[in-house]
Each structure stands twice: as structure tokens, then as C-alpha cells.
UniProtKB/TrEMBL annotation:
Pfam families, A to Z: GGACT
Organism in which the protein naturally occurs: Salisediminibacterium halotolerans
Family: Belongs to the gamma-glutamylcyclotransferase family.
Name under which the protein is recorded: Gamma-glutamylcyclotransferase family protein
Superkingdom of source: Bacteria
UniProt GO MF annotations: gamma-glutamylaminecyclotransferase activity
PANTHER family in UniProt: GAMMA-GLUTAMYLAMINECYCLOTRANSFERASE, TROPONIN C-AKIN-1 PROTEIN
Length: 133
């Protein structure tokens, strides 16, 4: 199995989350790890990452095959450069305690007035939201 694409995940693709099945055969390279950006709550049961050089989002890093990457692209509504994408796929640095990686990261380009997830950690935010109910 050729696993050469690194993908940073921060929401429903995380281990234990609803879409983690897309990564069942993928190799987890680092967890936890971080990349620059800020999370917003879409109100649809998943977060979105927006660009922000001064904030860090917690997630996991996976090595995926080309087929797995294509499936993740479809899930994220990414159809290629200069297309009408829901998320844009960009290459960005991902940091662990011991190493820096270059990985694909999916960004939401039009957050509008979506509320920030101040924790910048989807799991912490979900737990806090559940506790507030």
C-alpha cells in the first residue's frame, strides 16, 4: 500500500469521530499535532478551518494512499484547483513535539459570521458544548 500523502485532520475525520472510517487503513503519523489556523463552528455538526497565522489548531496527521486522498477530497467538497470547492486543499506545515511535516490541510474560504471555536480543538469544544446542555 503506497501511503505518501500526509493529511492533517481536525474534525469529523479524527479517530472516534463519524468520518474516521475514511482513514481506517491509513497510518497515523502524529497525534496530537498542530497547524496554523482557527476553527469555526459550521452549525452542521462539523468544524471548518480558516487561515490564521497567529493561532494553532489541534488535530491528527495521517499518511494516506492516493485513493484515500481522493475519497477525502470528495468528502471535503474539493474538486481541484480553481474549481467551485467547499473546502480548499492547501499544503501547510504541521508541527508535533519533535518534528515539522508538510501536509495537506482543508480550509474553508468563506466563514461569514460563523462563531469561532475558541479552544481550536474540536473534541474539547464538543465536550464543553455537551456539558453546557
Amino acid at each position: 500500500m503506497n501511503q505518501h500523502n500526509l493529511v492533517f485532520v481536525y474534525g469529523t475525520l479524527l479517530k472516534g469521530e463519524p468520518n474516521h472510517g475514511y482513514l481506517t487503513e491509513a497510518a497515523c503519523v502524529e497525534k496530537p499535532c498542530f497547524t496554523n489556523g482557527r476553527l469555526v463552528d459550521t452549525g452542521e455538526g462539523y468544524p471548518a478551518l480558516i487561515e490564521d497565522d497567529y493561532a494553532a489548531v489541534k488535530g491528527e496527521l495521517y499518511a494516506v494512499t492516493d485513493d484515500q486522498l481522493n475519497n477525502i477530497n470528495l468528502l471535503e467538497g474539493y474538486y481541484g484547483e480553481n474549481r467551485a470547492n467547499l473546502y480548499e486543499r492547501k499544503t501547510q506545515n504541521v508541527y508535533s513535539d519533535s518534528q515539522t511535516y508538510s501536509a495537506f490541510v482543508y480550509f474553508f474560504e468563506n466563514p461569514g459570521n460563523l462563531p469561532y471555536i475558541t479552544e481550536n480543538d474540536w473534541r474539547t469544544y464538543q465536550q464543553k458544548t455537551a456539558d453546557d446542555r
